[in-house]
Design brief:
TRAP transporter substrate-binding protein, five-stranded mixed β-sheet, TRAP_DctP_sf, D-Maltodextrin-Binding Protein, domain 2, DctP_fam
Length: 345
């Protein structure tokens, strides 16, 4: 009789596990802004719309961009920690206000081109995932970049030295300090507010990627652009850790594989968009974006050196100080993972 009870209990447990595995996985997703442009529209949203097919799982996805559901990018870490959404897009520069660890792979002067950004990100993936799990009840899934962030201005300029006295739109405090060092007046503005600010003279210049500028209409209200990258601006996707742990190992493996496939495709498409928009903005032949007629300002050797030196002189010291205040292992983890790439020990 005892054996029969054990067999019955085992069968019940197996049946329960099988039923759980057959039930569709449900994920509520707060994605990147619609205003982010083609990366969100052509890669991110289609990925989630077809997630069940890509992952090879029965999945029900409720995908909504953050600007559609009223989630602010600066609140993303709090949103995912609370479980309000299961998967959340973390715009790293903006979300770093709650935890500077997120800005580690993208401080000014570090990731200024795609190849370098890829190496830096791969080095920081582990430390950031650990931090998200320990502090924010989240697990890192993937990241994609908008590409090198460059300078657009309303009015002529010949070098970064000309930024002295000009109001320049920035997106994070490290970039703000870098602009201050050049004598500029940093103005922190949301992307969606910047075109109007440029048009009305609230700001003289602004920094973003060529594709974002193109889709956001910045070339309509600016005249000059310098194709020198300061940072690349990345968007990571993370999942609420409780939701992740509730999945079966098979579900976890398939979800992780789907996000890695998306990551590879998004990086490639980001570079394609960047190159195309860079040509579009200055009136050259292009096929994706809208053609404008900005004047391209070639960076001087001094400009390139200024940005290259920024990691040592401005961005790392400032970032390390703020990050170590909230996470005492922050700068030491960075030096171990990324430091050798830039000669910082």
């Amino acid at each position: 009789m005892k054996t029969l009870h054990l067999l019955a209990a085992a069968a019940l447990a197996l049946g329960s596990a099988t039923a759980q595995a057959q039930q569709p996985l449900k994920l509520r997703v707060a994605g990147n802004f619609v205003a982010a442009g083609l990366l969100q529209q052509q890669k991110e949203q289609p990925f989630f719309d077809n997630f069940a097919k890509v992952a090879g799982l029965p999945v029900e996805i409720d995908y909504k961009p953050m600007d559609v559901v009223g989630v602010k990018d600066v609140d993303a870490l709090r949103v995912i920690k609370s479980g309000l959404f299961d998967v959340v897009a973390l715009r790293l520069a903006q979300a770093s206000r709650d935890d500077p660890t997120l800005l580690g792979p993208d401080i000014v002067g570090l990731s200024t081109d795609y190849d370098t950004a890829r190496k830096v990100w791969d080095a920081w993936r582990g430390p950031l995932d650990q931090r998200l799990q320990e502090r924010h009840n989240a697990k890192l899934l993937s990241v994609y970049p908008f590409g090198p962030q460059i300078l657009f201005c309303k009015g002529a300029f010949t070098s970064l030295a000309d930024m002295k006295g000009k109001k320049v739109r920035v997106s994070d405090q490290v970039l703000a300090k870098f602009m201050e060092k050049m004598g500029a007046i940093p103005v922190t503005l949301a992307f969606g507010e910047t075109q109007q600010a440029l048009e009305r003279g609230v700001t003289d210049c602004a920094i973003t990627g060529p594709s974002s500028a193109n889709s956001g209409g910045w070339p309509e209200v600016t005249t000059h652009v310098m194709p020198l990258g300061f940072q690349v601006h990345q968007v990571a996707f993370a999942i609420n850790l409780n939701k992740w742990k509730a999945m079966t190992p098979d579900q976890q493996a398939k979800v992780a594989a789907a996000f890695q496939k998306f990551e590879a495709e998004a990086w490639a498409y980001s570079r394609e968009l960047w190159d195309d928009a860079a040509r579009c903005n200055v009136g050259k032949e292009c096929r994706i974006g809208k053609k404008f007629a900005l004047k391209e300002v070639a960076p001087t050797a001094a400009d390139r050196q200024l940005v290259a030196d920024a990691v040592r002189t401005v961005s790392f010291p400032l970032w390390a100080e703020s990050c170590d205040k909230v996470y005492d292992k922050c700068s030491s983890a960075w030096k171990q993972a990324i430091g050798p790439m830039v000669g910082l020990k």
